[in-house]
Design brief:
The protein is α/β, with parallel strands linked by helices. The chain folds into two domains: 5-81 and 378-425, Urease, subunit C, domain 1 (Roll); 83-369, Metal-dependent hydrolases (TIM Barrel), CATH 3.20.20. Helices cover 37% and strands 22% of the residues. It has 16 helices and 16 strands. It has helices spanning 51-60, 96-103, 108-113, 118-126, 130-146, 162-178, 201-218, 236-248, 265-272, 285-294, 302-308, 315-320, 341-350, 356-363, 365-370, 398-401, and strands at residues 5-14, 32-41, 44-50, 69-72, 77-80, 82-84, 149-155, 182-190, 224-229, 252-257, 276-279, 297-300, 325-327, 388-391, 408-413, 416-420. Strands 1, 2, 3, 4, 5, 14, 15 and 16 form an eight-stranded mixed beta sheet that branches. A hairpin with a 2-residue loop joins β2 (32-41) and β3. Bound molecules: N-(iminomethyl)-L-glutamic acid (NIG) and fe (iii) ion. The site of N-(iminomethyl)-L-glutamic acid has 13 residues, from α4.
């Protein structure tokens, strides 16, 4: 149930104002209001401005102030809720041993080719009941919420067969109904080549196109289709075929592109009009230029590069070449087992050379654009969903400065207080 709330006296109201992705230089514009206030009615933002202007309007409007919860954000910064636009948070089992193998020198792809990696999680996810997946998914969403995430994208891809892919997507639909974090579901049936299809990747793509995707689309279980376009997984040609079929079914497109090898995934994303291309550690200058031109959001996942000890994506270069960059966690049980937003901020600013302002845009408005929601979330603008966070510090600069530690004190989702670090001091 959406709520009514007024947040006033915010030392800094960081609105991130905008209704579409910000590209290049525009990523630095945060549109800050000092001593700001925001009014949320029935879950929707109805007024934004200086407290000195907004508060008298509220009092004069005839609305009983008693209909609203009022939060005093004196000495605190207020921002839009974070949008984590790339995760794989519904899965069974864990792969802690792989972390140690990687420390001993095995690469992510070597582990995958030995039948470990994603296929390991596929086995576990097939064996896990829907109820158990809902339970673990809920705990993960609770943790994301504590980091200030109010909307998350979640991918299937640990089934690689119709029933398990659908089970994962149904788990997300069930969680979306009961949890305050909104979930945007993506079909990632082409996440790995399952046993039985090794060396017959084209036949697996045929299976997904003819037997799985139509069912997923007909049941309205996914908004996006994604594919792991990578050497020794799915080629550019196979990716094009699958994504074109997805588009014909009304799904929007995403691509795991150029993560390990510069295969041309970014170019394909531009060619097909994908909403985002993700990872992009090895993307060529041409791929970057094509994405900028086509308006594909470049979604960067620095936690994965960190965890796999791979070079970071060229975030600075992409912004300097007029791309819209988003940042996300890639939370998953293998390459990046973390939902930590503070870690993403630390890596993006210290190692990818994004400014603090650019990193904030990348996790708010551009995160929303990466899931085609820039018109409804990702900024504090009138008409948007009332999803905001209150920091325990006066300015947004504290977010990366407090390295690896969450600065989020309160989270408001659709006008309701849904997380409070200090509910009642005892
Ligand atoms: O985005 N690269 C492919 N997929 C995921 C990893 C999934 C896993 O290892 O379980 C990623 O990094
Ligand atoms: Fe991923």
């Amino acid at each position: 149930m959406p709520g009514n709330i007024i947040i006033k006296n915010a030392h800094q109201l960081v609105t991130c104002s905008g209704f579409e992705a910000k590209k290049g230089k525009a990523m630095s514009e945060l549109d800050i209001i000092d001593d700001g206030a925001v009014v949320i009615q029935n879950g929707v933002i109805t007024a934004v401005g200086k407290t000195a202007d907004i508060w008298p309007q509220v009092e004069a409007s005839g609305h009983a102030i008693s209909e609203f919860d009022v939060l005093d954000a004196r000495g605190k910064a207020v921002l839009p809720g974070f949008v984590d636009s790339h995760t794989h948070f519904v899965f069974g089992g864990y792969r802690a041993e792989e972390f140690s193998w990687r420390l001993s020198g095995a690469s992510y792809m070597e582990i995958m080719q030995r039948g470990g990696g994603i296929l390991n999680t596929v086995k576990a996810t097939r064996a896990t009941s829907k109820e158990e997946l809902i339970e673990s998914g809920k705990k993960r969403l609770d943790s994301m919420l504590s980091f200030g995430v109010t909307t998350v994208e979640g991918k299937s891809g640990y089934g690689l067969d119709r029933d398990t892919e659908i089970k994962q997507l149904k788990v997300m639909a069930a969680l979306d109904n009961v949890h305050s974090v909104d979930i945007v579901p993506t079909f990632l049936g082409a996440h790995a080549v399952p046993a039985g299809y090794q060396g017959r990747e084209d036949a697996f793509i045929d299976y997904l196109i003819s037997e799985v995707m139509p069912d997923v689309a007909a049941r309205n279980l996914a908004e996006f289709c994604d594919i792991f376009c990578e050497q020794n997984v799915f080629s550019v040609k196979q990716s094009r075929r699958l994504l074109q079929a997805a588009k014909a079914l009304g799904l929007k497109l995403k691509i795991h592109a150029d993560e390990i090898v510069s295969l041309g995934g970014a170019e394909l994303a531009a060619e097909l009009g994908a909403v985002s291309a993700d990872h992009l550690l090895q993307t060529s200058d041409k791929g970057i230029a094509n994405m900028a031109k086509a308006g594909v959001v470049a979604t960067l996942l620095p936690g994965t590069a960190f965890s796999l000890k791979e070079p970071y994506a060229r975030g600075r270069y992409m912004i300097d070449h007029n791309c819209a960059v988003a940042l996300a966690t890639d939370f998953n049980p293998g390459s990046c087992f973390t939902e930590s937003i503070p870690l993403v901020f630390a890596l993006a600013t210290l190692y990818m050379n994004l400014t603090v302002e650019e990193a904030i845009t990348a996790l708010t408005l551009n995160g929303a654009a990466a899931i085609d929601r820039a018109d409804t979330i990702g900024s504090i603008d009138v008409g948007k969903s009332g999803d905001v966070i209150i920091l325990e510090f006066p300015t947004y600069h504290y977010i990366p400065y407090h390295i690896g530690v969450s600065t989020v004190e309160k989270v408001v989702k659709q006008g309701k207080l849904v997380f409070d670090k200090e509910p009642e001091k005892c």
